[in-house]
Amino acid sequence: MKIIQIPLLRDNYGYLIVCQKTNSAGVIDPSEAEPVLRRVEQEKVNLKAILNTHHHRDHTGGSEELLAHGKLEVYGHKSDGGRIPGLTHAVDEGDEIEIGELHGKVLFIPGHTTGHIAYLFGGNLFCGDTLFAGGCGRLFEGTPEQMHASLKKLMTLPDQSKIYCGHEYTEGNLRFAVTLEPKNHKLVSRFERVQGLRMRGLSTVPSTLEEEKQTNPFLRWDSKEIQKMLKARAPELRLDPVSVFAKARQLKDSF
Ligand SMILES: [Zn+2]
Ligand SMILES: [Zn+2]
Questions:
Q1: Beta bridge mates, 131
Q2: Does the annotation mark 89 as catalytic?
Q3: What's the pTM?
Q4: Which residues of 154-183 are buried (b: 16+ CB within 10 A; e: fewer)?
Q5: By the 8 A CB rule, do 146 and 133 touch?
Q6: How far is the CA of 205 from the centre of ligand 1 (A)?
Q7: Which residue out of 77, 116, 148, 167 is catalytically annotated?
Q8: Mean pLDDT over all residues of the chain?
Q9: Which of 54, 106, 197, 212 sits between 20 and 30 A of 120, alpha carbons compared?
């Protein structure tokens, strides 16, 4: 399996996933068509499918133009029928997807939107705007309970899973993270490393689930330091996982 990251719009990432045995490919979250078509041509692969993680325009904006170039399967959550352009394969938790001989699995992870899904191909997770490198998506449609449960579900994957998220937001995410956990050495050194990569215009994605567990504040509701930091700002805060997650998310919204 070959994975090609395609920078789109201002800070989006689309991904071309290629079955090297059959030369079939799928594109995850095509924000725009042109750069995707160019890559498909360069790689000389046959684009067979569009895999949407959620309905937002910055993840689906290129679909109509791609579909105008040829017939494609279009995947998205079954609740997003009216919101994902050209949906042909309405999927849900546990459904399986084939791109050539590649086998993927759908995970239902609502929170950012009510119909958000992730695609898992082997150890590679394409999680859109749910889990970011160093952060998580805003709660546009779902509740903190839903998002917390979705992130918890992703945390059950193997530590070495690669996290391919939908945006290059890592530096800003970690800038916020160090305000909540300044004594987390792994976090501080990750922030420095990421700043160095961004200064050179390089991508910070993918990360690994292990890195996220160690440094992403939205997976660290059990961290005593984060709990203390949040409690100092909101003395009434209860320290159950959902409340800690919700408070951190709320602070990030206005960071
Ligand atoms: Zn989104
Ligand atoms: Zn997005």
A1: 136
A2: no
A3: 0.98
A4: beebeeebbbbbbbbbbbbbbebbbebbee
A5: no
A6: 17
A7: 167
A8: 98
A9: 197
